């Protein structure tokens, strides 16, 4: 921002000096100068009003010195960013160390985690994909906040239903199905405990230019692009091994990257299908 301000100041000073007092400009020159001033002025106005907390570095060296070297990661997954340039703020991303974020048929359920139940059908249906079963989860706050989930078929006589646990305390659930008696009328309960899990990513409640997680923390996204990460095949058709896949993700974690943009292309390199 200071770099743009300097350019704007120098141009303004030159155009207002005595040397330019009686200078006449052609229409083309006026158009060019007007465009330059409008672009610079618009950029400065945006940075000042629309993005007051945005930091624009004057050079790559400024970024490396002021910010890149100030990123630290602790053993529990907490990332701290403390820019040394003036006006910087401190942001942190904490990892979840209190337990798993996915539990199955267990009482060890964590707030902002996912809980899964397993249902067993009667096995008499000709096409299990025609079977419809729903599970209603009632949180501690009561039936007014109940969540009804459609169970999904998972081979054999097994159906599963998952719920995102947003409250701590005792939950109950019950199943309903008019097409499979084995999936109808089942019920159970589980308890959700407090955790350090962050929860889902959402638009910030008070700042539309930022993201936040369900636990109220601002989310600082550091992303990577790997279009064929889940394609599991190279461009020549050779398979990407599981260790290679895991190493790629682990390398991103080591670099403090917390999001990856990837495509789901059905198991192969996209170009190989044409």
Q: Would you kindly provide a written description of the structure presented here, covering whatever features stand out?
A:
This protein is α+β, with helices and mostly antiparallel strands. The protein folds into 4 domains: 2-50, no CATH class; 60-93, no CATH class; 102-193, Immunoglobulins (Immunoglobulin-like); 222-273, no CATH class. The chain is 21% helix and 25% strand. The chain has 4 helices and 17 strands. The strands form 5 sheets. Strands 5-12-11-7-8 form a 5-stranded mixed sheet, with no helix packed on it. It has a 4-stranded mixed sheet with strand order 4-6-10-9, with no helix packed on it. Strands 1-2-3 form a 3-stranded antiparallel sheet, with no helix packed on it. The longest helix has 24 residues, at 27-50. The radius of gyration is 28 Å and the shape is elongated. The model is unreliable at 49-60 and 66-99 (pLDDT under 50).
Q: Label the CATH architecture of the largest domain.
A: Sandwich
- Termini gap: 47 Å
Low-confidence stretches: 49-60, 66-99
Number of strands: 17
Rg, rounded, reads: 28 Å
Note the main attributes of this structure:
4-stranded mixed beta sheet, 5-stranded mixed beta sheet, elongated, 274 residues, 4 helices, alpha+beta, Immunoglobulin-like
Summarize this entry quickly.
The protein is α+β, with helices and mostly antiparallel strands.
How do the helices and strands line up, and which of them pair or pack?
Layout: H1 2-15, H2 27-50, H3 60-66, E1 71-73, E2 79-81, E3 91-93, E4 102-104, E5 109-110, E6 114-120, E7 134-138, E8 147-150, E9 152-153, E10 158-164, E11 169-176, E12 187-193, E13 201-203, E14 211-213, E15 218-219, E16 223-225, H4 242-254, E17 259-261
């Amino acid at each position: 921002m200071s770099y743009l301000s300097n350019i704007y100041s120098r141009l303004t000073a030159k155009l207002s000096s005595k040397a330019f007092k009686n200078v006449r400009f052609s229409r083309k020159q006026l158009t060019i100068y007007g465009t330059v001033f409008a672009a610079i002025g618009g950029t400065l106005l945006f940075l000042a009003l629309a993005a007051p907390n945005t930091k624009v570095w004057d050079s790559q060296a400024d970024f490396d010195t002021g910010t890149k070297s100030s990123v630290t990661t602790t053993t529990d997954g907490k990332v701290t960013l403390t820019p040394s340039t003036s006006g910087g703020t401190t942001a942190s991303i904490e990892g979840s160390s209190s337990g798993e974020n996915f539990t199955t048929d267990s009482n060890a359920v964590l707030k902002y985690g996912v809980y899964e139940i397993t249902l067993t059908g009667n096995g008499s249906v000709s096409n299990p994909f025609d079977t419809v079963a729903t599970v209603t989860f009632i949180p501690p706050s009561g039936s007014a906040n109940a969540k009804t989930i459609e169970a999904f078929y998972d081979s054999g006589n097994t159906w599963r239903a998952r719920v995102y646990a947003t409250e701590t305390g005792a939950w109950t659930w019950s199943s309903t199905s008019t097409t499979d008696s084995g999936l109808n009328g089942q019920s159970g309960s589980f308890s959700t405990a407090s955790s350090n899990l962050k929860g889902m990513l959402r638009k910030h409640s008070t700042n539309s230019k930022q993201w936040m997680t369900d636990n109220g923390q601002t989310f600082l996204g550091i992303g990577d692009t790997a279009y064929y990460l889940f394609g599991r095949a190279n461009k020549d058709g050779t398979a990407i091994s599981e260790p290679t896949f895991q190493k790629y993700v682990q390398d991103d974690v080591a670099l403090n990257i917390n999001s990856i943009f990837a495509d789901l292309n059905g198991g192969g390199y996209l170009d190989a299908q044409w």
